[in-house]
Amino acid sequence: MTIVISVSSIRGGVGKSSLSLELSLYLSTKGKVLLIDTDFYAPTIFNEINSRLKHKALSATKHFSRDVFKGLCEVKDSVVKASTNFYVMFSDPKVNLWELSTDIGTKEFWIDENPNKPSQAELGLAKIKEYTDKLSFDFIVFDSMAGMAYPVIFFSYLSTYPIFLTRASLPQVEDAVGFINLVGSAEKPINLVWSNVPNADSFLQTTRAKLNQAIQEKCGNRFRALGYIPRDPEFERAALEGNLTMIPNALNSAYFKQLNVLINTMFNNK
Q1: Domains, the chain, ranges and CATH?
Q2: What is the tens place of the pLDDT at every residue in 207-249?
Q3: Which end of the chain has fewer CB atoms surrounding its CB within 10 Å, N or C?
């Protein structure tokens, strides 16, 4: 059975798309992966991947994830192979906010008023499932947009493992509590990951433990404290200098090592 993972956050700039990409690269060492960019408003996956491919940069596909969910194309027409075992469906980098507000920005697109009738989004998702089943994909990773819009909730609900990424601050803890209580359940808890943590800092380690406890008190078994993504100067320097690649763990970085720990913990705690 294909494992579905969603990566969500309330606020932008916490490293959601970077985590989605690094997670997909890691999983590509375990099986066949499809990364779907569903950040319809501020997509970055296309540029992040091409910054790593350099002279072998991918061309934009004719169709994008939004087109698949709208039923405007076949799934195969929007998927491109990025590296070994790793395929991607991009979101349209030419964002038209007016068009978005009239289709995927509406509740009706995701949830049909008739409970016995599939919504447009559900029809698109069925086509993706048919495609991934036919081609034997082992993993699907959804990179969601920031916020609490219908697409974010939709992809979190359908995921085998919903991940929520946030930073260790009180305002973002309240964001996490609201998201977890809305989407999480005892059967499928939200896997909380703290972003950009300097793991050598014992004070922040203690702070994170206190924040986990505060969330636990408000969310109970809807929540799982999965771990953290460390601040990694080597990774950040390689990104700034354009030296990141599509080879999993090419840097042997702290980021990738901790990602290995997070995924093993998540899979083993199901």
Answers
A1: 3-268 (3.40.50.300)
A2: 788 888 989 999 999 999 998 888 777 888 887 887 888 877 6
A3: N
99 φ, ψ (degrees, to nearest 5): -65, -40
Euclidean distance between CA atoms 206 and 158, whole angstroms: 33
Classify 103 as helix, strand or coil.
Answer: coil
DSSP type of residue 55: G
Q: Torsion angle of alpha carbons 147, 155, 134, 59, nearest 10°?
A: 0
120 torsion bin: left (phi>0), alpha (psi -120 to 50), beta (else): alpha
Buried b vs exposed e over 212-228: b needs ≥16 C-beta within 10 Å?
beebbeebeebbbbbbb
Structural tokens at position 220: 């109970």
Q: Which of 192, 78, 197, 213 has its CA nearest to residue 132?
A: 78
